[in-house]
Amino acid sequence: MRIDIITVLPELLKSPFEASILKRSIDKGIVEVHFHNLRDYTDKSYNQVDDYQFGGGAGMVLMIEPIDKCITALKSERDYDEIIYMTPDGLTLNQKMANSISLLKNIIILCGHYKGVDHRVREAFITKEISVGDYVLSGGELGAAILADAVIRLIPGVLSNETSALTDTFQDDLLAPPVYTRPAEYKGMAVPEVLLSGNFPKIEAWREEQAQKRTEELRPDLLK
Q1: Quick one: 113 and 202 in the same domain?
Q2: CATH of the domain at 218
Q3: Any idea what the CATH number is for the domain that residue 92 is in?
Q4: d(CA 121, CA 160)
Q5: Which of 18, 44, 104, 221: disulfide with 81, CB 3.0–4.6 Å?
Q6: Please, which pLDDT band fits residue 32 given cuts at 50, 70 and 90?
Q7: Maximum Cα–Cα distance for the chain, whole Å?
Q8: What is the CA radius of gyration of the chain?
Q9: Is residue 34 located within the same domain as residue 135?
Q10: What are the tens digits of pLDDT across the range 130-162?
Q11: What is the rounded average pLDDT of the residues 182-199?
Q12: What is the pLDDT of residues 90-111, one digit of tens each?
């Protein structure tokens, strides 16, 4: 997969991709992640990429021209399956959406900033709008990193145990069951006996029961 991220703050984005699973996926050549500074695509003085909004109001808006130039340049080199805009009023990111995006080959992620982008960008170029929650961040960069992380870890070969992602919370609309590791007892707190039994059918049944129970208690909305 290739991910191209368009941003006014590439320096804010780079560190999440320089460690752990994301770095290993890039080093293995499973994923390519490229950052594009929107300021490189403007002819305005002082590398201006934003302007006041028509009709008045507080806050600046990213202009259509540099975004058009950047997306057009990228599309001249390859086809893209999705051009995604990170915005608070987009569809809320969930596991099913991450699963679907992980199957794609090339995507662009546009990070909003200030009061967002000229709405014509959304009408002319964007194929999917995604939010990471019902709150507002200073820009779309952190949301883009969250989206990329959620997607990349699902790509075959990224995780050392590929079945791990299949048992994550939300994969089957249930929360994951409790997990434990050594020691089997700590300060009077014991690991459930069934997990120590070696009886794998019973262990799986226990995990399914616990997943259902936790979902009913903590996220009953997932069961509707």
Answers
A1: no
A2: 1.10.1270.20
A3: 3.40.1280.10
A4: 39
A5: 104
A6: very high
A7: 70
A8: 22
A9: yes
A10: 999 999 999 999 999 999 999 999 999 999 776
A11: 97
A12: 999 999 999 999 999 999 999 9
Structural domain range at position 41: 2-152
Are 186 and 76 found together in one domain?
Answer: no
Q: What are phi and psi of 91, to 5 degrees?
A: -70, 135
pLDDT bin (cut points 50, 70, 90) of residue 37 is very high
Structural domain includes residue 192: yes
The pLDDT assigned to 136 comes to 94
In the 3-class helix/strand/coil scheme, how is the chain assigned residue by residue?
Answer: CEEEEEECCHHHHCHHHCCHHHHHHHHCCCCEEEEEEHHHHCCCHHHCCEEECCCCCCCEEECHHHHHHHHHHHHCCCCCCEEEEEEEEEEECCHHHHHHHHCCCEEEEEECECCCECHHHHHHCCCEEEECCCCCCCECHHHHHHHHHHHHCCCCCCCCCCCCHHHCCCCCCCCCCCCCCCCCEECCEECCHHHHCCCHHHHHHHHHHHHHHHHHHHCHHHHC
Same domain for 134 and 86, yes or no, is: yes
Region 195-217: mean pLDDT is 96
**In whole angstroms, what is the distance from residue 131 CA to residue 107 CA?**
16
Residues 105 and 58 in one domain: yes
The total of structural domains in the chain comes to: 2
Does residue 141 fall inside a structural domain? Answer: yes
Same domain, residue pair 96 and 179: no
Token pair listed for 154: 């699902």
Same domain, 143 and 199: no
Q: State the Cα–Cα distance between residues 102 and 79, nearest whole angstrom.
A: 16
- Contact between 108 and 163 under an 8 Å Cβ cutoff? The reply is no
